[in-house]
Predict the 3D structure of the following.
Amino acid sequence: MKPSRPLLSPRPSSRPAAPGRSDVKTARQPMAAQERKLLLLNKPYMVLCQFTDEAGRETLKDHVTEPGIYAAGRLDRDSEGLLLLTNDGKLQAQLTQPGEKTPKTYWVQVEGIPSEEALAALRAGVALNDGMTLPAEARIMAEPEVWPRNPPIRERQAIPTCWLEIKIVEGRNRQVRRMTAHIGHPTLRLIRYAIGTLTLDGLTPGQSRELASSEIPVARPPRPARAAPSRVPATTSAKGPSRSGASDNTSQGASGKGSGRASARRPARKI
């Protein structure tokens, strides 16, 4: 999927304009609130989060006819639930960039019943093959009243299942499934219920709803990059500690190496 083109800024021309003609090209104007679109879609099971597929599989095109919009984030083909689509590139980035930490809530049917210790591991963060996960919210919930899946999940008669509500602020590939597998409870069904304050309420599988302009989150400007701290080598001073009261030799231990008093050595005692 191609991201929305960035907004362009007008550049004044350094050459004088000819009579009756302007050499300044009109830039694309910022998207007005009434032009911005944000759709909520209840993505059905086994639908790809893209609009075309060479293999002829079911895609978003089979459920969304609005032109010029793109998915803000992804949802695995074998997962269901809330997907956001927008024509606003800034809003798309705000909803998907890892640094924004937009919370996402999942209803997850798992095999077995996790212990409190297993849930505590999810809350604290678990070690996956691509690193530790950030702390999450995890709890056992009552079975939600949701649509039946087609085909239904395969349950083993001897092993019970339960539903978890898991809230994360990351978006790694198949992260929730890997998290539950890590604690010994494979995911059988996964439904994304919410992204931030936007929820799946009132949407059946394949149904979408366009938000009113007053419901659309305001796209924030990108966060400025943090400057890397400069590493300036500490200088040795013979005037004692600085105004902060920190001694220059605190990191050198009791040996006195690198002490700021090196230039004022005590005379050797006479024996």
About this structure: The chain has three helices and eleven strands. Residues 34-100+197-220 form a domain with the Alpha-Beta Plaits fold (CATH 3.30.70.580).
